[in-house]
């Protein structure tokens, strides 16, 4: 039997259920990309919001694969959120009022033009936005080529946002606010520029309207959400007494910092724990560079040292000490000061979250999409360190580790999960992998590709990975 409205009443008392009338919930938010992170993070905030304001039910939209939307449909939008540390517990989330899978474009189009829908949100990961290395829309991306040619049948999230906004403008409706919830610096501003650029190809009036009328607030999102593996789903089933194909797990820590934006009579996100502020950039930078930068370092160096999870990598004292120095010295030095924000305390708290034995967060999951992640997580820091005349020997270690990771995978004939997989595999298996990889412009840009100091530091670190003797690098 599946979790659903019909089976809700038979769940054991240990599982928390909301007490509100589900029938009253309306769809006010359209969300692109209902993966585990969205279901564990944004949806949990909205679930609380719905207790007092039923207007903000979420329609979950999957443009590519229908696994999650099928599960949500079969379960009346319900699923379990398991918090797996400090205050462990399971609660049923009922924030999704609708689910739209691939092939349901007509329904999506109608929903995006509904006056009740006032907000759209997205977690489609970095690569989902079809951006080029400089953060602008990549007009050579196959999905964007398609959407330019056939704007009425979009395939990319950018194409869908532009089509939805175009319909609203044509109908004389106000736009929806567009909230990007992915780990990119200046995420709202980048999404805004991409939407305007695509709209400009079709209709200059629409592009100007988007530029003038649509809010694209920046945001910082944070909660460690390991993938829902079979063991976890079995645990949920044992606790619930029914099957739940959309269950998610996360740590108890959760944070969402959202740039204040204008939406008359909009949702009171602050009332459910969202930090609504005028300046998100400092938070966003600290989170991306410290947490995600350390994560990617642990992933690539940790995998080279035979570790499987973040917890195991953090239990490797030499690696832990190097990551701690990287964060406290190299990364902290690059951060903009934020009033009332203690960088060192923040870094310590993040590293402490990584030492959580309850969380089995696979390094291989974090290692995905390195070409999309490294620029925000480590390379901006590196570029700024070079400009300021600071050393980059430690920052070169995760970069060399990534090159070694790609090389190992390519040589073993294993799939590399990365939109640039073929290009990277060819570069990393050539005679001079470091030069070839640093020449990948969408990742390193012209500045890092040609910086002799950086090149030498990466080359030197890479030798250690190539020879399988990484330990000397960890005393840096
Ligand atoms: C991780 C993130 O998978 C990854 O690349 O670094 O998903 C990380 O767990 C989250 O950003 C934490 O908020």
UniProtKB/TrEMBL annotation:
<protein>
    <submittedName>
        <fullName>Mannitol dehydrogenase</fullName>
    </submittedName>
</protein>
<dbReference type="InterPro" id="IPR050988">
    <property type="entry name" value="Mannitol_DH/Oxidoreductase"/>
</dbReference>
<dbReference type="InterPro" id="IPR008927">
    <property type="entry name" value="6-PGluconate_DH-like_C_sf"/>
</dbReference>
<dbReference type="InterPro" id="IPR013118">
    <property type="entry name" value="Mannitol_DH_C"/>
</dbReference>
<dbReference type="Pfam" id="PF08125">
    <property type="entry name" value="Mannitol_dh_C"/>
</dbReference>
<dbReference type="GO" id="GO:0016616">
    <property type="term" value="F:oxidoreductase activity, acting on the CH-OH group of donors, NAD or NADP as acceptor"/>
</dbReference>
<dbReference type="InterPro" id="IPR000669">
    <property type="entry name" value="Mannitol_DH"/>
</dbReference>
<dbReference type="InterPro" id="IPR013328">
    <property type="entry name" value="6PGD_dom2"/>
</dbReference>
<dbReference type="Pfam" id="PF01232">
    <property type="entry name" value="Mannitol_dh"/>
</dbReference>
<dbReference type="InterPro" id="IPR036291">
    <property type="entry name" value="NAD(P)-bd_dom_sf"/>
</dbReference>
<dbReference type="InterPro" id="IPR013131">
    <property type="entry name" value="Mannitol_DH_N"/>
</dbReference>
<feature type="domain" description="Mannitol dehydrogenase N-terminal">
    <location>
        <begin position="28"/>
        <end position="263"/>
    </location>
</feature>
<keyword id="KW-0560">Oxidoreductase</keyword>
<feature type="domain" description="Mannitol dehydrogenase C-terminal">
    <location>
        <begin position="279"/>
        <end position="464"/>
    </location>
</feature>
